[in-house]
Amino acid sequence: MDASLAEAGKARLERSCEPEQDWVRLGTGADGIERMEAFFRGYAYDPHRHDTYAFGLTLSGVQSFDYRGARRDSLGGHAIVLHPHEVHNGRSGIESGFRYRMLYVEPRLIRQAMGEGGRALPFISTAVSQEPRLVAAIACALRDLDQPLDPLAADDLVERLAQVLFALDPSAGNAHSSRLDAPALERARDYLDAHATEAVDSSRLEVLTGLDRFALARQFRAAFGTSPYNYLVMRRLDRARRMLAEGTSLADAAFACGFADQSHLTRQFRRAFGVTPGRWRALQRQIRA
Question: DSSP letters of 119-134?
């Protein structure tokens, strides 16, 4: 055999034996929907929480995390459902790592898809599940991660998920709750979307909605799964994440997105996503390399 060919074969073999590096890949999404895929060998995320539902599908390995006071382990083919604002972390349960896909859906979409029968957000206490309907709905939603998610497809995947959640938590349709002022809540949400980088005063929202600040906070959480303030912070973080992916410096992104300074952005980013902005950016570069 030619010596150069032998050396090339040896190099390829050595590379194939090297451990895979951690990476994150963002998929296509839609209004209120984000999708992603990732691989981690060990530590993945610090304790954090989302203001969305998080639906996951473990593709390989063992995906381990702490949730509601207990360790959870998801194996290949298992589904994951995390309720908005429930603290969790992430790591590999085995040395070879784990690969998974995740779908983040704003609670307002789930409520809308439940229709008149839904009075509260569904809650699934078993974060890791092999329930066939749930696995099928999540797998369908995470299929073709790179294909554009047109409005009809987005509506379909949300409707499927909402109906499965409703079926698994029938109490969501029977919970006693005061009537929500949906138009007022939409006005508040639209205002927060439009003024995410500004300091929003509660009195402005009171005038806009006709609700006092505490009634607004209660109804906003019931409708959208989070408080008006946390919703505002997440919109700032969404913008900062896009700017960082485009190469904007951390200091400039913090200023442009309404954070007090760079360290303020870093703290909020880590609290929301479980990693620092620098690590998140490095993971993006790794997948593009």
Answer: -S----S-SEE--HHH
Separation CA 61–CA 240 (nearest Å)? 32
Question: Residue 130, CB half-sphere, CA atoms under 13 Å: how many?
Answer: 5
Torsion of CA 174, 117, 166, 111, to 10 degrees: -110
55 pLDDT higher than 70:
yes
Planar angle of CA 31, 219, 267, nearest 5 degrees: 60
* DSSP codes, 51-82: SSEEEEEEEEEEEEEEETTEEEEEETT-EEEE
Residue that is written with structure tokens 């600040």 in the block: 213
| CA dihedral angle for residue 53, residue 62, residue 168, residue 139, rounded to 10 degrees | 70
Residue 87 corresponds to which amino acid? V
3 state DSSP class of 13: helix
Alpha-carbon gap, residue 180 to 101, rounded angstroms:
34
What digits encode the pLDDT tens for the residues 59-98? 999 999 999 999 999 999 999 999 999 999 999 999 999 9
Token pair, residue 175, equals 């919970």
DSSP for residue 86: -
pLDDT (tens digit, 9 = 90+) per residue, 90-139? 999 999 999 999 999 999 999 888 877 667 889 988 999 999 999 999 99
SS3 105: strand
Three-state SS for 42? coil
pLDDT the model gives residue 150:
85
